[in-house]
Amino acid sequence: MASANRGEHREERGTGTGTRVPGAPEFTGPRVADFLRAPYRQVEVTGGALRYRRSGHGPPLVFLHGPLVNGNLWRKVVPLLTDRFDCVVLDLPFGSHTLPMSPGARLDPPAMARLVAEAVETLGLAPARLVGNDTGGALAQLLMAHRPEVVHDVVLTSCDTYENFLPPVFRTLPLLAKTPGGMAVLAQLLRSGGLRRLPFAYGLLTRRPIEAAALTSYVTPMRRDAAVRHDLAKALRDLDARHTLGAVEGLRRFPRRVLLAWGEYDRVFPLRHAYRLHRDLPDSELVTLPDAGAFVPEDSPVQLAELIHDFFPPGSR
């Protein structure tokens, strides 16, 4: 387990507003645009297919997100990593995806984790380096606990853990998902820019507002496609702490390294849970980012990219 001194040093390095990723290109708007223009590919999994974007060269990194967002969550981070990593950004069927699953597909958390494992194995990435945020981090924990053979080292940014799955502010979502027409109501509510900023939506997740274009990419699929709403309802119904609590014993036996990168401004995923994870994981390092909320890739992309560069040093395999 990382020493306290080392963790303190890395926290100091993560605070600078002018942090530069060693050997990486400058973070600029056009590079984000290049990421957004990258072509989608598909990988077949049980019950359908997942869309993904892939760019860069080197050891592969697989990026995982949570509900009501898609791979665009990583649009500011990936351009800083493609100089040395093969970045695979999945669009999971969490309501902001554009390729619906088959009507009978299972999308509870263990099933969703299995879809990630299938994608990793089909693409020849196993054991994969995972980078997860929000419920994407919970899926990574399920794989670490129950399918450790498909997982290499892991970076977990602020995410669901222990009893905090879902966080209290979002616990009405599974109830809404079980209500006939509930997802259509949610999709219509999220059409309004003002409502998107409320706590039950995206308001508590970042320190600064998310760009309108990114939010539009998150809410448009569920608004336009009933099949996407059907997937979202299935994905939300069983988000429950029994899954993350059931993974704890497996996490305590996880044999690989884990970096925990948590937002100090996070009002959704308590920092105390990051410290608890740090204690439970045999080989982990905890870094806190003072300028980041729950969506660390939104608030601190440069600092997060730097941490990933350092965590996977040159020559690592």
TrEMBL record:
Keywords (A to Z) from UniProt: Hydrolase
Superkingdom of origin organism: Bacteria
Stored Pfam families: Abhydrolase_1 (PF00561)
Boundaries of every AB hydrolase-1 domain copy: 59-300
Compositional bias annotation for Basic and acidic residues: 1-14
UniProt-listed InterPro entries: AB_hydrolase_1, AB_hydrolase_fold, AB_hydrolase_sf
Region (Disordered): 1-29
Molecular function as annotated in GO: hydrolase activity
Protein name: Alpha/beta hydrolase
Originating organism: Streptomyces hazeniae
